[in-house]
Amino acid sequence: TVQSFVTYTFLNSAKETTAFSNYGCAFKCNDLSRKTQIRRLCSTNSAITETLSQYLFNLPSADEEISNAVIAIADSCIEISGLLAVLPLTCEDDLLETVANGGVNVQGEKQKGMDIISNNIFKENLRPHAAVLASEEEDSIILGSPGKMYEIAFDPLDGSSNLSVNTSLGSSGKMYEIAFDPLDGSSNLSVNIPTGSIFGIGLHEGSNETPFSRSGRSLKAAGYALYSSSTEFVLSFGEETVGFTLDRERSCFIKSRNSISCPERGTFYSLNDGREPDWPKGLQRWIYDAKRGLTPSGTIYSSRYVCSLVADFHRTLLVGGWAGNPRPHLRLLYEAAPLAFLAEAAGGYGSDGEQNILDIVPSGLHGRVCVFLGSRKDIEDMEDYGDIQQCSKKYEF
């Protein structure tokens, strides 16, 4: 039996104490104004006291194993959030800067020290809860139980793979495989711009099937953490998309957004306008028309672009419009499919410019796709313009 309770006691004394307890999370607060605020929250919004653990326990589609995996992911995000919150004060410079000696990940991207730390946190916390793992920072699949890593043959320049598995899987006894991007947007750390973590969880078919070889339709759950002025954890099992906010005093995620709904249309688009000369003609026409209220919606759109995928997607999910990249730059397994899963559960849409991202079968562990995520009607209007996928091009920063 899951035991959970919330208690709040207000005493008329200088030592008055408010105690909250939820799944082992507790804190004391001795500030009257703070206690009063908490009391009002608890009395006016019961949803604000529901922890992530409670939500999972009450969710019929979340079995014990996937619930434990999600909690392990959330714990990883709490740990990363804590490190990021004080990073400029407590860390060595190389955690903010590129790894010495030309460190790059499998994508050919320059790694920050925090990329490596975040990846290790995810691996350590998730291995006991998954059959296999795949990380954006790793060139091979990671076994969920102690053992050898898969050896995957692929070309790191284009992300292609023949998905040939050269070692046997062995048996971890776990049902799920988890793909994750441990720290998205790390290039922004030195200027304190929001970053995030992204994950997708699918059923593992054992030795009968190569891991991570099915489309996003096979996902059972997906989510992300946004590390910003607060840390949010957004999650979906397909039925709805919900949001949780980190209470640092309790080290718990508390439900703060009920059943997020992405508007059918928005007023913003989010991509790098500086690349406009390289865009295909259809995308150029849509942006030209959007700025003048000439698209089918008649809306005059504005541009909002952080250049941090989780931040741009989070805003878009809540207020509408679309965010993405017309180049085949974002990874299908680690970024595009999980976020498309979340968008669709919230009534939105994820497209590569020609088809639903959730219908795309991975070409390899690190295959990349064009991405447009957000309001369904806005993206469908843009698809009707045609020719919105940009050819692959690498930009130096």
Q: Which labels suit this protein?
A:
single chain, eight-stranded mixed β-sheet, disordered N terminus, globular, five-stranded mixed β-sheet, alpha+beta, 17 strands, 27% helix, 397 residues
User: Approximately what portion of the residues adopt beta-strand conformation?
Assistant: 15-25%
- Tell me the helix content: 25-40%
* Count of DSSP H/I helices: 10
Strand tally is 17
Q: Report the average pLDDT across residues.
A: 83
Uncertain residue segments: 1-30, 147-171
Order of helices and strands: EEHHHHHHEEEEEEEEEEEHEHEHEEH
Report the biggest beta sheet as strand number plus sense, adding barrel if it closes: 8 strands, mixed
Cα gyration radius (Å): 22 Å
Question: Care to describe what's here?
Answer:
The chain is an alpha+beta fold and 397 residues long. The chain has ten helices and 17 strands. It has helices at residues 32-44, 52-57, 64-85, 87-90, 93-96, 113-126, 281-290, 309-319, 332-345, 376-385, and strands spanning 18-22, 25-29, 132-135, 142-143, 152-155, 160-165, 176-184, 195-203, 219-227, 231-236, 241-247, 252-257, 268-270, 302-303, 322-331, 349-351, 368-374. The protein has an eight-stranded mixed beta sheet with strand order 4-3-7-8-9-10-11-12, sandwiched between helices. The chain has a five-stranded mixed beta sheet with strand order 14-13-15-17-16, sandwiched between helices. The chain has a two-stranded antiparallel ribbon with strand order 1-2. β13, α7 and β14 form a beta-alpha-beta unit. α3 runs antiparallel to α6. The longest helix is centred in the first third of the chain and has 22 residues, at 64-85. The radius of gyration is 22 Å and the shape is globular. It starts with 17 loop residues before the first strand and ends in a 12-residue tail after the last helix. Mean pLDDT is 83; it is low at 1-30 and 147-171.
